[in-house]
Amino acid sequence: MGRGRERSHHQYAKTETGIIRKNWKGRTSIVLVFPNHYAVGLPNLGFQAVYQLLNNIESVVCERAFLPESPGPAVSLESNSHLEKFDIVAFSISFENDYLNLLILLNDAGIPLLSSQRSEAHPLIIAGGVACFINPEPIAHFIDCFLIGEAENLLPRFIECVESGSSRNELLMDLACKVPGAYVPAFYEDHYTSGGILESLIPVVNIPRKITRVHVPHLENVATQSVIVTPNSSFGNTYLIEVSRGCAHGCRFCSAGFVYRPPRFRPLPLLQECIRKGAQLSTKIGLVGAAVSDLPDLGILCDQARETGVQLSFSSLRADALTPDLLSSLALSRVKTATIAPDAGSDRMRRVINKGITEDQILNAAAALVTSGIPNLKLYFMVGLPTETIEDVEAIVILCLKIKAAFLKSSRAQGRIGDMTISVNTFIPKPATPFQWVAMDAVPLLKKKLAMITRGLKHVPNVRIETNSLKEAVVQALLSRGDRRVSDLLIRAVQNRGNWGKTFRDTPAFSLSFYIHRQRSLDELLPWDHIDNRVKKKFLEKEYLKAVAGKISPACPMSECRLCGACDTGRMTHDERCG
């Protein structure tokens, strides 16, 4: 794989590849798998956090594996062991498009794809990550047990149950009944109406009807930071620190903004200690969170970074929150490209999606970034948003031209002109959001919208346009919004080694439109409704109706309230529901 040298502060790390524990006797062996390539997977902070949490359990040995760069079975980085040799194969899944890679990894390891075909001789196959939180159903037939929730509070009880010594089926029953957040799909049956709409998804044994996502209420004593720092990653040698979880702004297209409600911030002393640790391993520190610019005392952290001599970068900044401290930190970190995400071209569409920023704020942010010495800008937009008109698409071109003018004026004052990159992605309605009911635009209409933007900007100097693959967007929409019947299509896609075009042609009876181009009724049972992500479905419905009316909603108050249900202290516990 051409691995670069890794530096780790993990207490068990012994070599440049991390933990070496070839003697598994007496310990539960787990291989944590990211179903993508090594360079892509390592920066995932959630993956690293789970890796550390598992290895901090004395009775567990956890190794890492990734999708091989060439065809063939995957092996772990630490001991070069094949996946089928471990007690547990644990997949960390952030993106639905990695579902296919998951099946390819199992297939190449000689592990039966279907959970129902595995015996005591096979590893337990588990999966977690945000993609599983919002809709695990398309891969439900392949996973023995999903872990729905945040690992800090979920893993200890899971491991305790695993080490009870039960047989495979008894273990799965114990997990389903005793471990909050454990979802064993085999114990649930799905039924459909004559029209193909999901009618019920209910347990066939005495276990909870709903799986409540495990939540860490407070982050005061929970630090999530890089376990390993390596140049062989998308972020180079950057040491990553998670400063918060969730986002208060409530953009209606964003699943993370609703799944991780209420937003939680780590306290300043803990983050200062994380920066001190990071500075010992790298001169580059990245602050990670859905809305880093909302972090209280962010300016103090910026001052600490300057005094320590490290370069600070930010995973996400809002156009309405570019303070002098942030701009100064970006400039001192020698950042060459800054990102702004207007997401929509018109103020009307930004009200529909509840973006909460105006055109003036976007223009001012672009000018301020260039004036601070950052030469290049990248802008993110979406097409196909609910209620979008052709005029709204034209507004993207108009706004980009206005940003270009502000960008150019500030660039000339700096004596150099940088580049602007316009990234336009297709909107995909995601589960657990106010837009979970809406239909995705048809491909011909999306092509028309993307062509309008490309045509309107392609002759503008120093402007580059990026658009996503519509074929990939269609697959992602299917895997985001599908039910258990999608598993047959996934198996066929594995047989076709990922050729989705051939897969769709081979299954003419399968209706893509049913899953992705159909407006769903507000009273329809959705495939993911049995996953309780704490936000009430009725609240999402109200937000959807406000979106259609073009009305904005206030930010999450981030305190005890009863508006969305995420802070509902009266929710019945897993143990109470399991009897």
- Could you tell me the number of beta strands? 21
> What is the CATH-assigned architecture of the largest domain?
3-Layer(aba) Sandwich
- Bin the helical content: 25-40%
Give the overall silhouette.
Answer: globular
Helix/strand-derived category reads: alpha/beta
Bin the strand percentage. Answer: 15-25%
Order the strands across the largest sheet as they lie in space.
3-2-4-5-6-7
Query: What's the CATH class label of the largest domain?
Result: Alpha Beta
Question: What are the segments in which pLDDT stays under 50 over at least 5 consecutive residues?
Answer: 1-22
CATH topology of the largest domain: Rossmann fold
Tally the structural domains. 3
Distance between the termini: 49 Å
Describe this structure as you would to a colleague:
- Helix content is 34%, strand content 16%.
- It is globular and about 70 Å long.
- It is built from 20 helices and 21 strands.
- Mean pLDDT is 89; it is low at 1-22.
- It is of the alpha/beta class.
List the helices and strands and how they pair.
Elements: E1 7-8, E2 28-34, H1 38-41, H2 45-55, E3 60-66, E4 88-92, H3 99-108, E5 124-128, H4 130-134, E6 145-147, H5 151-162, H6 168-178, E7 182-183, E8 188-192, E9 198-203, E10 211-212, E11 228-229, E12 239-242, E13 244-245, H7 255-259, E14 264-265, H8 268-279, E15 284-288, H9 298-308, E16 311-314, H10 324-332, E17 337-343, H11 347-352, H12 359-371, E18 376-383, H13 390-414, E19 420-426, H14 443-457, E20 463-467, H15 470-481, H16 486-495, H17 500-506, H18 512-516, E21 531-532, H19 537-548, H20 574-577
Parallel strand pairs: 2-3, 2-4, 4-5, 5-6, 10-21, 12-15, 15-16, 17-18, 18-19, 19-20
Antiparallel strand pairs: 1-11, 6-7, 8-9, 13-14
Helix pairs in contact: 2-5, 3-16, 5-6, 8-9, 9-10, 12-13, 13-14
